[in-house]
Amino acid sequence: MQSASDRHEYPAHWEADVVLRDGGTARIRPITVDDADRLVSFYEQVSDESKYYRFFAPYPRLSAKDVHRFTHHDFVDRVGLAATIGGEFIATVRYDRIGADGMPASAPADEAEVAFLVQDAHQGRGVASALLEHIGAVARERGIRRFAAEVLPANVKMIKVFTDAGYTQKRSFEDGVVRLEFDLEPTDRSLAVQYAREQRAESRSVQRLLTPGSVAVVGVGRAPGGVGRSVLGNIRDYGFNGRLYAVNKAFPEETKEVDGIPAHRSVRDIDGPVDLAVVAVPAEQVPEVVAECGAHGVQGLVVLSAGYAESGPEGRERQRELVRHARAYGMRIIGPNAFGVINTSPDVRLNASLAPETPRPGRIGLFAQSGAIGIALLSRLHRRGGGVTGVTGVSTFVSSGNRADVSGNDVLQYWYDDPDTDVVLMYLESIGNPRKFTRLARRTAAAKPLVVVQGSGTAPQGHAVRATRLPHATVSALLRQAGVIRVDTITELVDTGLLLARQPLPTGPRVAILGNSESLGLLTYDACVAEGLRPSTPLDLTTAAAPEDFHAALARALADDAYDAVIVTAIPAVGEGSAGDAALAEALRSAAEQVPGKPVLVVHVELGGLAEALSAATSTAPQAAAGPPRIRADHPFRALDRLRSPQAPAETPAPGNSDRLIPAYPAAERAVRALADVVQYAQWRREAAEPGRVPEYEDIDEKGAASLIDGLLTRGQGLTLGTEETCELLAKYGIRAHRALPAATADAAVRAAATLGYPVALKATAPHLRHRADLGGVRLDLADEEQLRRAYTELTELFGTPDELRPVVQGMAPRGVDTVIRAVIDPAAGAVLSFGLAGAASQLLGDTSHRLIPVTDREASSLVRSIRTAPLLFGWRGSTPVDTPALEELLLRVSRLVDDHPEVVAVTLEPVVVAPRGLSVLGASVRLAPPPARDDLGPRTLPAY
């Protein structure tokens, strides 16, 4: 396949796996001289009508000349791509470069004719749209800027492929043929179309895995026990609504059933389709299983088998081959080394996992890369773990294991428009594609909450993760900017998730606190202050408070416009027994129901029989006949149960339902932390509705900057600009950097000062002294030659020779607050703008804020205000506030520079002295390099293996 071409080597980087509209996969690759037989076989399976649409005339078979033409390409002026499944062609596309006269041409001609042919059996799967994206990217790489296509008017499907692509195009009708011409430069609309298609395809691919009509468990042991037998039992016991099969090649011929399930020696022996195969065989047997599944038309695999990339280099290569093998048949994989999948929908009822407890149905989507963490999360949701109470279950659960194929990004695409999921909880040990995850997270968070626990930043073995130069804390900050609720532990993940699943979003940070314990109320108040909330003075109802007093106080607080949320602190009365506890539960529930627009949380201390009484109060609720068993009453974490009416259904109601569940927490800190996270998320949702704009500045010379950059890059691939070049480039974007003149001798320093004008500053710029005024390497406000020479002598006596110090002279700037602005293009996360105060203290504390580029005016404002030391900019302790509007404008100009010119891979402005009026850029550096490839602007592809 990888034969040498006429003019270029085989472009292996054009090979890609793609997800099609129906969720299946196909491989796209260049067509070579080795594909003659495949091309002929493919063409024979195309209908006469499709052939007519392709060639505008009856064309029953390809001639030898046609086959030669369609398989011999130079990969520059003539390119052909094929979409394949199982190694066979299902569609082809080619372009031929043409000149202004429409005849074959070479560069610099920048137009090409393009034509498609898709097998009829695969039409409607989005194959042509995927091929158009890829052939367009290839053409841009080869200097082609425009495609032309001639299509018969009756070929409406192909016309739609072109018109729906989102490119700028022209359309004409000549000689009975529709001629379409369109530019290949990505537009906002073409990217929107591409992202929408990506979402539909990836969502559908996950849906096929989570909603199968039939499941085969491969590797079911002949004796009870073992992974395969356990999963088979879980699927059966949970009441799977589809067809279920047990498969093991070691079954005796006479074995027809296992535990009442039809048994077969091979997937190919099953009479009927199999949508999903759960693979639980040793790793060395998996390739045979994959081949059998592919031959039988299985749509997807959940591979529980271990022994892959987590086990070392040999296992990593085994994992690559697994992915390649499965994708060749159009199948997607969850795993390997996965824990399984769960779908609690009554239409599916699939528990293809190793979960030790039956999951409860609910509206939380749960994703865990780690099987152990998946068990812990399911257990906590099931058992009201860690004291968080009430029954709130999952809609779907995915444990991805090594996530060799299906990742958190794919599952996020599915949950985005899944009507059964209202809240998404994710445990991520690593983020394989931060740029894409951030984009998907921002879109998802605008529709439903997304709560994430992120690992330490060190990817476990088995995870293919792109290299990033950004610190772990920076990636976390960017996730928060995208609307992700970032928490630190799985306990906080569950705490916050249950609050989001049960209560409405607060409209602000104002919190009312009421209860029958003054001490518990004060603890809650202090926790609120520590988390940045605005609590009221706790209302102490005293320990003598009756349920009616709780009801009245809660109803008043909810009705008061001065509060956005209410925390109830409750210590059960000693000696009242179950009747009083049940009455308190009903009092809180009924009061909350009166004003459904504000969240209510309960902080409780478990004394007496409150938990048991509340449990008994809710036990009269009817249980679904096929539902999971209730948790035993003597469970040690049995605490404040669901606060709902006895007639409420067992599963969690959808948000907005007046029959709300009130989450309860055994510690004030946990309740307040969850509420603070939700308050910040609610604020993000409000701000996301009006994200601001990227301002236009009339003095920006974008073309001049581009010309300057092109000229500078002729010197080499990576270049750190000198002082004059840096100042010249920044000036193109309206950024004036103060000149710093070198002072190799005291006389040179005097001459520099005469040029700049007194007063001046003398600075050492050696790496160990740069930007470290605290070390004494800077002398300020030197008013004349005498002071300058004295300062020069002092510096050289203290720190060494001028060659070691690298001294410079700079004009004095108005006094103010020293800040630092940085921009960097990270190959994984994209372009990032950072801001903080200058100085060792800020660096040690990591007090820096970050935003993705391009930055809007609202984001620039929040960037300045989000550092902990921001009060120093706004008049802290009587100081004069500085010119933050000028600072925000500078941030926006740097953002524009990096966004307009991706060759600017790093910018540092340090220090930027922000005065009460205006600011001064006293130090600047710029680095140029060819920009990293941006896969978010290219065609849709699955991660390469």
Briefly characterize the structure.
By secondary structure, the chain is an alpha/beta fold. It is 34% helix and 22% strand.
Provide a descriptive summary of the structure in words.
The protein has 945 residues and is α/β, with parallel strands linked by helices. The chain contains 27 helices and 39 strands. An eight-stranded mixed sheet has the order 1-2-3-4-5-6-8-7, with helices on both faces. The protein has a seven-stranded mixed sheet with strand order 11-12-10-9-13-14-15, sandwiched between helices. Helix 8 packs parallel to helix 9 (313-328). The protein is globular and about 100 Å long. It starts with 15 loop residues before the first strand and ends in a 17-residue tail after the last strand. The model is unreliable at 1-6, 385-390 and 607-659 (pLDDT under 50).
Task: Annotate the secondary structure layout.
Elements: E1 16-19, E2 25-30, H1 36-44, H2 48-55, H3 64-71, E3 78-85, E4 88-98, E5 111-118, H4 127-141, E6 146-151, H5 156-163, E7 169-174, E8 177-183, H6 188-210, E9 214-218, H7 227-237, E10 243-247, E11 257-258, E12 261-264, E13 276-279, H8 286-296, E14 300-303, H9 313-328, E15 332-334, E16 340-343, E17 350-353, E18 361-368, H10 371-383, E19 394-399, H11 408-416, E20 423-428, H12 434-445, E21 450-454, H13 472-481, E22 485-487, H14 490-502, E23 510-515, H15 518-530, E24 534-535, E25 539-540, H16 547-559, E26 565-570, H17 578-594, E27 600-604, H18 610-618, E28 664-665, H19 668-688, H20 702-713, E29 719-720, H21 723-731, E30 740-742, H22 746-756, E31 760-764, E32 778-782, H23 785-799, H24 802-805, E33 807-811, E34 817-826, E35 830-837, H25 840-845, E36 848-852, H26 857-865, H27 884-900, E37 904-914, E38 919-921, E39 924-928
Parallel strand pairs: 5-6, 9-10, 9-13, 10-12, 13-14, 14-15, 18-19, 18-20, 20-21, 21-22, 23-24, 23-25, 23-26, 26-27, 27-28
Antiparallel strand pairs: 1-2, 2-3, 3-4, 4-5, 6-8, 7-8, 11-12, 16-17, 16-19, 29-39, 30-33, 31-32, 31-33, 34-35, 34-37, 35-36, 37-38, 37-39
